[in-house]
């Protein structure tokens, strides 16, 4: 570690307990700094910044420079002199400088800190990729994913990339959302022209306009014709300043001005705007319910020539038209910013749809359009118990929808049916339905002491300590997560999918070794081995089903396997 | 429904006020259709008149829903034919004619392709263009009636395309046997059109006028004529065209003119047995006994008639050359025209018919040029037919611009009952309904009829959906009012502006403002601009303003809705009595607040209005002030009602004028608004108003689900059938 020595204060003897590495140098120490009403000292060190209450020897607060995103200072003139450091995780700490010798000193203290931080922060800005931060934030906000991450990634069952790309679905969704959200641009304020307030400077009666780059951008976005003019004129015909001067005297700012003043630079701009408006008049009126011109069925003769239009004040009318135009253009500009495809006139909704829309009352529609499809079960017990299986070992596979398993199932089913048919013809022979051996076993199971009559089995998990229980739950969650992805890859028709199954099966093996076996050991220590086996069995069963399936697959089609490990 | 059923049973007329969004249309349709099914002999037809084309189409969609429901419940096809009728403009499917946007041009071009003589010419010479769709309809359409179903305008067009029949003529033909006809008021009220379209509708029909709060004005407009200088100049042109055509024809084909002459001698009735397509020119209501008579000899020959028309036009021209305003009765006009140019009343009466006949004979296919002349002939006929209830006003210039000479002759109908009288007399039940008909007792008076049922309904609401308030003063305690004396006062204008700005800051999404007149809107906007209020407003929302150009306003409207949809929020400044206030709904977020700046009194200095008020006073004993207030309040209510549509909707209604809090104004608001207008909210300042708005909006923004409404304002079938609820409904019905 490079040793930076502050020129001002040097306290090499100071060794911090909480430090992970060895001692660091102090670059700056500022006393009289308040944090949450406690006065203390602020230390700026080579790698981090810390604050401690005066009489202690350990930091109450310490931030690594690399954690700090920005610093903010209170504006001048505020009674409190403050400095805030914002961290990457979104939290912030505010220090208040309370040097008793006055505000000037406080400011000096603050500026010292600020300057040093300004120096230090860029050094530590190891391009913390934002991504990582987001992931961190996500994990801290979602404990279940955090657990999953711990179980799967930390124990090397799967790689971190895999985790982020495949497992943390919620995270992926969230990211997409934010991506979409960031696309939304800020619209244009309707009053941007009003914000250009003329200010008279007292001495020579001139008028000053304040023009910010924001306002300029708004003008360009709202009035494309002005932008064109600007492009055309500014470098060669006139200076920037002249251009804006002209703009300020144009009709854009003085809405009551007559547009037909030929001397004005912006006359043709106004005409262009007018043209755009005219075009809109013919194209944009596409809603039949809003077209005032087509409202009346039988038009009255008077509408053609508005006789009283002549006597009205033309300046007023122009102004009103300009207000409308301004609003329309502002709206257009923000629309263009928002939508990816600019200015595509969206197709008018069909007239009938508009009419229907205008007629339906939400509150009157019955809520029968329930989005959930109701599951209609004719035989509930079948749903709960699953189909009767003849070969119990295949059950796991069958349920996962393998085609061979289904074929076997249907074959046995057929054979049973066939037996019935053969035995009966039209005469029903109950003896043929069940073989006598099965009947006996079933009877045995159903009589007292049989496995089906034992009632609710005392759940072995109850005996587990809560810690073990929790661990078991986590195991279940992690395993089912991996299995989910494993089965999702079936049938592995493409090479990618094949690879994925391979990866998953490796992960399963790893999981078995790294997680399941140690847990079993623990269980055996805690209780008897048979009980441990009982508890673990479902997990093992799921695992084995997957592995068996995979090996079946690779037998049929020898696949290059990178890791072959035994159970 | 109870009231409607009673009216149907009694075969009388009724007047119903139902708040918008409570299912007015559905109620009317379903009950009347059910009644028709139950008593097919008593009630054969439903004629549903609405105001605008979208409204008509909405009614059709409602009807379609109803029919679908019938089909679902009864499990079989319903033998009911529902039909919408609109002008050629909306129904034409001719490839080139339908491209025209203006209704008159479409009518004219249609006529030039379908008139009987054009088709006769086509038979002789293939080069003469005709409309293939009309030919298709003429050849086959009449034998095969439209199969039962619901036909909206688009459905008619589709059907027409499929069969290659003209949808317009198909629809007109079908009206006679359709069970339900939906069309615009004009087809029933405007005598010029009604004669053609609605003549054959049977007596046992029920007629519904929806959105009928303006029905008296429609009646009056349909009977009034306005003649300007320009129109007369055009008339002269058309007359010269007529003259040349006649002289040409005389040389080439004098027989035809002779034939016409003979026909006219026999009587007009025979002359008008023409094809229905020739009805593009139609006469105003003529008592049928006149039609039985022969055309007076003075105008029988073509040349004489043209000369006659020329004299009439010249006479009107001289009358327009006045320096001061003239007002006279039709009788006075007739006397004057007799003494000055020796024209009798009788030939004047026939002028419309005679002109139509002449144009037919001359085979003039382009009718659009002749519309001024037709207008004058209508005027001549009307003025000589009706002596009561009309007035003639000649103004040499407009009041606002006394220096510009712009003479106009108004032939104005003063009595709205003239146009609607035939409707009331002919049909057994006429239902007049709207969301805003209050005060109800005015309508029977001005329309001169006797309703058997007259009711105003309210809404049952689960929460206070509307917040009407009367803001009478600004924060500086200066009274707000659009009174003539104070409307130009900057303090008042500024207070109005501040009110709007503060409301815009507090209310989300869309805000609609209504001004009393377009002129007032313009002056206010320009003073607001000078006062910087527009800038303040733009900080909160986008600003859109109604203009006098309908297309521009539509564009502004579409953008207003866009701005509301994407969450920016917008303010729309608009005019009471304007197109926006009459035809556009601002439901849900499109209108969270409606502001009414001032009381929308009609321009009281207008001479036409003065004449009408006088007439109302003399004939119907309605005081001027009563009528003016009634008229203003129904328009105000109409504006306020724009923001409510359905029970889940909610909106603020701000009446910004001190005068609204007076009892005579307040009591004229519809019952459903009055119910929510608390006494404490009747005299507020801007600040108080904004505070109330904020509190109320917070309350309204709470989630509102269907369950909250159930049992109060929304009933399930079981609840409806339960005895307890039945009792409640009974009680409420009696309370009404």
From TrEMBL, chain A:
SUPFAM superfamilies: BSD domain-like, PH domain-like. Residues 128-167, 214-255 form the BSD domain. Keywords: Nucleus, Repeat, Transcription, Transcription regulation. GO terms for cellular component: transcription factor TFIIH core complex. It comes from the Eukaryota. Its main location: nucleus. One of its GO terms (biological process) is DNA-templated transcription. It is found in: Nucleus. It holds the Pfam family BSD. Belongs to the TFB1 family. This is General transcription factor IIH subunit 1. It comes from Daphnia magna.
UniProtKB/TrEMBL annotation, chain B:
Residues 1-266 form the Helicase ATP-binding domain. GO terms for cellular component: nucleus. One of its GO terms (molecular function) is 5'-3' DNA helicase activity. The lineage of its organism: Eukaryota, Metazoa, Ecdysozoa, Arthropoda, Crustacea. SUPFAM superfamilies: P-loop containing nucleoside triphosphate hydrolases. This is General transcription and DNA repair factor IIH helicase subunit XPD. InterPro entries: ATP-dep_Helicase_C, DinG/Rad3-like, DNA/RNA_helicase_DEAH_CS, HBB, Helic_SF1/SF2_ATP-bd_DinG/Rad3, Helicase-like_DEXD_c2, P-loop_NTPase, RAD3-like_helicase_DEAD. It is found in: Nucleus. SMART domains: DEXDc2, HELICc2. Pfam families: DEAD_2, HBB, Helicase_C_2. Its EC number is 5.6.2.3. One of its GO terms (biological process) is transcription by RNA polymerase II. Belongs to the helicase family. RAD3/XPD subfamily. It comes from Daphnia magna. CDD domains: DEAHc_XPD, SF2_C_XPD. Its main location: nucleus. The keyword DNA damage applies. It comes from the Eukaryota. Its cofactor is [4Fe-4S] cluster. It catalyses: ATP + H2O = ADP + phosphate + H(+). The keyword Cell membrane does not apply. Keywords: 4Fe-4S, ATP-binding, DNA damage, DNA repair, DNA-binding, Helicase, Hydrolase, Iron, Iron-sulfur, Isomerase, Metal-binding, Nucleotide-binding, Nucleus.
């Amino acid at each position: 570690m490079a040793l930076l020595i502050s020129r001002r204060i040097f306290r090499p003897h100071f060794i911090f307990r909480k430090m992970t590495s060895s001692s660091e140098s102090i670059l700056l120490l500022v006393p009289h700094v308040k944090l949450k009403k406690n006065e203390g000292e602020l230390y700026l060190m080579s790698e981090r910044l810390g604050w401690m209450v005066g009489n202690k020897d350990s930091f109450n607060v310490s931030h690594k420079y690399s954690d700090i995103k920005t610093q903010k200072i209170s504006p001048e003139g505020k009674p409190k002199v403050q400095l805030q450091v914002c961290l990457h995780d979104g939290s912030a700490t505010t220090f208040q400088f309370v040097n008793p010798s006055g505000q000037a000193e406080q400011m000096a203290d603050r500026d010292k800190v600020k300057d040093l931080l300004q120096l230090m922060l860029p050094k530590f800005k190891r391009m913390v990729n934002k991504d990582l931060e987001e992931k961190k934030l996500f994990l801290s906000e979602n404990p279940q994913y955090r657990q999953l991450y711990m179980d799967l990634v930390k124990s090397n069952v799967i790689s971190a990339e895999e985790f982020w790309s495949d497992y943390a679905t919620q995270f992926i969704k969230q990211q997409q959302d934010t991506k979409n959200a960031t696309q939304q641009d800020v619209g244009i304020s309707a009053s941007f022209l009003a914000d250009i307030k003329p200010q008279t400077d007292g001495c020579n009666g001139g008028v000053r306009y304040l023009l910010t780059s924001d306002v300029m951008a708004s003008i360009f976005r709202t009035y494309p014709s002005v932008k064109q003019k600007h492009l055309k004129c500014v470098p060669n015909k006139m200076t920037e300043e002249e251009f804006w001067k002209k703009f300020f005297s144009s009709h854009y700012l003085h809405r009551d001005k007559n547009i037909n003043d030929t001397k004005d630079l912006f006359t043709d701009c106004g005409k262009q705007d007018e043209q755009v408006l005219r075009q809109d008049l013919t194209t944009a009126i596409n809603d039949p319910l809003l077209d005032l011109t087509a409202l009346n069925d039988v038009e009255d003769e008077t509408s053609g020539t508005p006789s009283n239009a002549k006597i009205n004040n033309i300046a007023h009318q122009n102004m009103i038209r300009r207000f409308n135009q301004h609003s329309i253009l502002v709206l257009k500009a923000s629309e263009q910013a928002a939508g990816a495809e600019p200015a595509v006139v969206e197709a008018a909704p069909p007239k009938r749809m508009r009419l229907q829309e205008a007629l339906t009352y939400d509150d009157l529609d019955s809520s029968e359009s329930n989005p959930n499809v109701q599951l209609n079960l004719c035989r509930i017990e079948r749903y709960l118990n699953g189909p009767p299986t003849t070969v119990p070992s295949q059950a796991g596979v069958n349920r996962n929808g393998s085609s061979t398993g289904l074929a076997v199932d249907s074959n046995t089913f057929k054979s049973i049916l066939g037996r019935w048919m053969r035995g009966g013809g039209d005469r029903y022979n109950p003896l043929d339905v069940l073989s006598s051996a099965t009947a006996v076993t079933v009877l045995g199971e159903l009589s007292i002491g049989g496995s089906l009559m034992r009632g609710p089995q005392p759940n072995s998990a109850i005996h587990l300590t809560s810690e073990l229980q929790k661990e078991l739950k986590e195991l279940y969650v992690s395993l089912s997560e991996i299995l989910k992805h494993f089965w999702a890859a079936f049938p592995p028709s493409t090479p990618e999918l094949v690879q994925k199954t391979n990866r998953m099966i490796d992960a399963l093996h790893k999981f078995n070794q790294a997680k399941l076996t140690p847990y079993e050991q623990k269980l055996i220590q805690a209780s008897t081995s048979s009980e441990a086996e009982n508890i673990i069995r479902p997990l093992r069963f799921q695992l084995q089903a997957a592995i068996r399936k995979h090996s079946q697959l690779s037998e049929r089609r020898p696949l290059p396997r990178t890791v072959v490990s035994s159970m | 429904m109870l009231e409607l059923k009673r009216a149907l049973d009694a075969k009388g007329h009724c007047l119903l006020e139902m708040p918008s969004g409570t299912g007015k249309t559905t109620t009317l349709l379903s009950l009347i259709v059910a009644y028709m099914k139950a008593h097919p002999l008593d009630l054969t037809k439903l004629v549903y008149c609405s105001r605008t084309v979208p409204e008509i189409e909405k009614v059709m969609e409602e009807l379609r829903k109803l029919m679908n429901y019938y089909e679902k419940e009864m499990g079989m096809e319903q033998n009911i034919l529902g039909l919408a009728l609109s002008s050629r403009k909306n129904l034409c499917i001719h490839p080139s004619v339908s491209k025209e946007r203006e209704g008159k041009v479409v009518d004219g071009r249609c006529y030039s392709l379908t008139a009987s003589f054009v088709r006769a010419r086509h038979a002789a010479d293939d080069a003469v263009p005709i409309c293939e769709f009309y030919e298709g309809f003429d050849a086959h359409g009449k034998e095969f009636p439209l199969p039962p179903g619901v036909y909206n305008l688009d459905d008619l067009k589709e059907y027409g395309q499929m069969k290659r029949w003209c949808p317009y003529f198909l629809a007109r033909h079908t009206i006679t046997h359709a069970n339900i006809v939906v069309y615009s008021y004009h087809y029933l009220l405007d005598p010029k059109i009604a004669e053609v379209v609605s003549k054959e509708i049977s007596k046992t029909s029920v007629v519904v006028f929806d959105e009928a709060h303006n029905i008296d004005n429609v009646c009056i407009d349909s009977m009034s004529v306005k003649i300007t200088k320009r129109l007369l100049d055009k008339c002269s042109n058309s007359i010269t065209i007529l003259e040349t055509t006649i002289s040409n024809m005389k040389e080439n084909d004098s027989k035809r003119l002779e034939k016409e002459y003979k026909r006219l001698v026999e009587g007009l009735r025979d002359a008008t047995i023409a094809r229905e397509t020739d009805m593009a020119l139609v006469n105003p209501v003529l008592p049928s006994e006149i039609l039985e008579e022969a055309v007076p000899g003075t105008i029988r020959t073509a040349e004489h008639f043209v000369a006659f028309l020329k004299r009439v036009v010249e006479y009107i021209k001289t009358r327009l050359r006045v320096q001061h305003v003239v007002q006279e009765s039709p009788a006075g006009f007739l006397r004057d025209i007799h003494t000055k140019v020796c024209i009798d009343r009788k030939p004047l009466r026939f002028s419309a018919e005679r002109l139509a006949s002449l144009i037919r004979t001359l085979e003039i296919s382009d009718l659009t040029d002749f519309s001024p002349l037709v207008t004058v002939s209508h005027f001549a006929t009307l003025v000589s037919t009706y002596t009561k209830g009309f007035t003639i006003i000649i103004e040499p210039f407009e009041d606002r611009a006394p220096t510009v000479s712009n003479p106009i002759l108004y032939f104005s109908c003063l009595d709205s009952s003239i146009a609607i009288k035939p409707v009331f007399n002919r049909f057994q039940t006429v239902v007049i309904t709207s969301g805003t008909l209050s005060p109800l007792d005015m309508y029977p008076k001005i329309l001169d009829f006797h309703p058997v049922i007259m009711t105003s309904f309210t809404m049952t609401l689960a929460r206070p959906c509307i917040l009407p308030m009367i803001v009478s003063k600004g924060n500086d305690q200066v009274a707000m009012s659009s009174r003539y004396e104070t409307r130009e006062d900057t303090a008042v204008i500024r207070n109005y502006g501040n009110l709007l700005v503060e409301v815009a800051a507090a209310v989300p999404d869309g805000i609609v403002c209504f001004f009393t007149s377009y002129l007032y809107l313009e002056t206010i906007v320009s003073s607001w601009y000078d006062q910087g209020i527009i800038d303040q407003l733009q900080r909160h929302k986008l600003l859109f303003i109604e203009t006098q150009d309908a297309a521009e306003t539509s564009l502004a409207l579409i953008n207003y809705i866009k701005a509301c949809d994407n969450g920016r929020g917008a303010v729309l400044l608009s005019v009471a009595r304007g197109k926006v206030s009459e035809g556009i709904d601002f439901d849900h977020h499109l209108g969270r607040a409606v502001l009414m700046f001032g009381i929308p009194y009609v321009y009281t200095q207008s001479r036409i209005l003065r004449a009408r008020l006088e007439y109302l006073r003399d004939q119907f004993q309605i005081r001027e002030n009563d009528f003016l207030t009634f008229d203003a309040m129904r328009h105000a209510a109409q504006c306020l009602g724009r923001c409510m549509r359905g029970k889940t909707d909610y909106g603020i209604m701000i009446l910004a004028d001190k005068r609204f809090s007076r009892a005579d104004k307040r009591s004229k608001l519809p019952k459903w608004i009055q119910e929510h207008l608390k006494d404490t909210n009747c005299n507020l300042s801007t600040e108080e108003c904004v505070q109330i708005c904020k509190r109320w909006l917070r309350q309204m923004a709470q989630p509102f689900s269907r369950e909250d409404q159930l049992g109060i304002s929304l009933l399930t079938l079981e609840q409806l059938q339960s005895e307890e609820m039945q009792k409640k409904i009974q009680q409420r019905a009696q309370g009404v």
